[in-house]
Structures are given as C-alpha cells and as structure tokens.
Write a structure and sequence with these properties.
The protein starts with a strand and ends in a 6-residue tail after the last strand. 6% of the residues lie in helices and 50% in strands. It has 265 residues and is mainly beta. The chain is globular, with a radius of gyration of 20 Å. Strands 1, 2, 3, 4, 5, 6, 7, 8, 9, 10, 11, 12 and 18 form a 13-stranded antiparallel sheet that branches. It has two domains: 131 residues, no CATH class; 122 residues, no CATH class. The longest helix is centred in the middle third of the chain and has 9 residues.
C-alpha cells in the first residue's frame, strides 16, 4: 500500500512577468521571475460518479506576504497569511489580514482589491506549475492498540478520511498526522490535526476549486470525524476575521497508516 509522503512533497508555481504578468500580486515585484516551492500539507481527491470526472487537489503550507530578493524590509505592510490550493488546471489563493475586506489593492491597481479568496485557471496567471505529491510504502494500522503503539514509537503517521456525498461525489482527504493523543492504559487515540483540505460542496456545485475550506480534523474511531472549518467570523457588526469557527460532523471511513514502512520488517 502507498500513501503520500508529505514531508517530501512540494508544489511549485512559476511567475515570469516578462511572459505572463501575475493577476494575484499586491506590489510590483523587485525581480521579474520567481519559482515558489511550497511543501504540501494535504491532498483531496474528488470523483463525480455522474460524469466520471476525477481530480486531485493539494494544499500548500501557509506563508506570509513578502518582497522576494530585497536586502531588508521583506514583509509587506499590511501583511497577510497566504496559502494556495492547486490542481493541474486551477488554483485558489487564500489571504487573511488582521480583518476581512482590508482594501489592499492588487498590482496594478486597475485589477481592483485583493480578495480573501481568489480562484482562477492556472494558465491565466502562472507561467507553469508543478505538483510533486510523492508516494511512499505504508501499512494500515488496525485497531486502537496498534495506533497507540505506533504513536508512542514516533512513527510517521498519515491519515485518510473518505466519504460519499449526495450519492454523487466520492471524496478522499489525505494528511500527515502532526498531533495525536495516545493512551496506552485504556488504548485510546485521538487525531487532532491540520490544516487539511475540506471540500464544502453543495449538491449543485460543480466548481470544485471554489468549494475548498481550510479545516482541522478530529477523530478517535474508524467511522466518524469532526471538522472545524475556517470561515469569516464576526467580531462586530462591521468587522470579521477568518477563524476556525464552523464545525461539521459526519460519518467517514477513517484510516491511519504507518508511512515509510519496510515490508521486509
């Protein structure tokens, strides 16, 4: 069996202003070329039973908005959290400032304000992209005792939540388990990890890239998971921030794998 080797998996997007000016930047870049390589945090496969169409999406690790290559004063002001969700065909950029609707302009200003969520076709804004989701041998851990023992032995663990939606979509979310609770007396475990990709699909939503939310997942059994999603969260009548504040619970098929497993052990 194989699973994603997240520690060795990366996405890269290439911006070449001489060939294709970016549609997502908030400033004039110091240089005209940049390759941004970002570690992959999570992957999500979606298959539409009605059409047979299937796609894989990956979530890049969060970073901060920056001027690349200058001597000092690297961080942009105001600064934003930045992460990208990517497939071979489409992208979704998530940016969060100290409040939503900050009014930061894109460059050039004729493109309008920077949105918190900006999606589009890869071919419209990037010179090219690469997704290197490396695979590694793994062994499924069966039962709480095996999961607890692998946790306390500091094995690399990968989680998977699979479920069906509206009798139409097959969804499979993979992620590294960064935080795990383990109890070797009563043999109890509990995953609490993220961020992961969560497709917030509606029954008639065919725009998969626009459906994604950042989420954390918690589960301690094989058939049930609880997710907490990042969403605009009011602080007052006129101010909201992006915060993990919306919960959802569902029946899922949860699997925990010991990654980088040598079948000859």
């Amino acid at each position: 069996m194989i699973v994603p080797d997240f520690a060795a998996s990366f996405l890269t997007f290439r911006i070449d202003w001489n060939l294709k000016p970016s549609l997502t930047s908030s400033h004039k870049p110091p240089f005209t070329l940049n390759n941004a390589r970002i570690q992959i945090e999570s992957s999500c496969k979606i298959r539409d039973r009605a059409t047979g169409v299937a796609q894989t999406f990956v979530l890049g690790a969060s970073c901060k908005t920056e001027y690349v290559g200058i001597d000092r004063d690297i961080w942009t002001e105001p600064n934003a959290d930045f992460c990208i969700i990517l497939s071979d065909e489409s992208f979704l950029i998530l940016k969060s400032w100290d409040r939503n609707n900050k009014g930061v302009m894109r460059y050039p200003a004729s493109l309008g304000e920077q949105p918190e969520r900006q999606s589009g076709r890869v071919s419209d804004t990037y010179e090219r992209v690469a997704i290197n989701l490396r695979q590694v041998a793994a062994r499924e851990l069966i039962g709480a005792e095996a999961i607890v023992q692998a946790t306390l032995a500091d094995e690399l663990l990968v989680g998977r939540c699979a479920y069906h939606l509206y009798n139409r979509y097959d969804i499979e979310i993979d992620f590294p388990i960064k935080t795990m609770n383990a109890n070797e007396r009563e043999w109890i475990y509990q995953v609490d990890t993220g961020p992961i990709l969560f497709p917030d699909l509606s029954a008639d939503n065919n725009s998969w890239i626009d459906s994604f939310r950042l989420a954390y997942v918690a589960f301690n059994r094989a058939d049930w998971a609880e997710f907490i999603l990042q969403a605009p969260t009011p602080l007052s009548d006129s101010i909201s921030v992006n915060h993990y504040s919306r919960t959802t619970q569902m029946n899922t098929q949860n699997t925990i794998f010991r990654a980088r497993y040598d079948p000859n052990e």
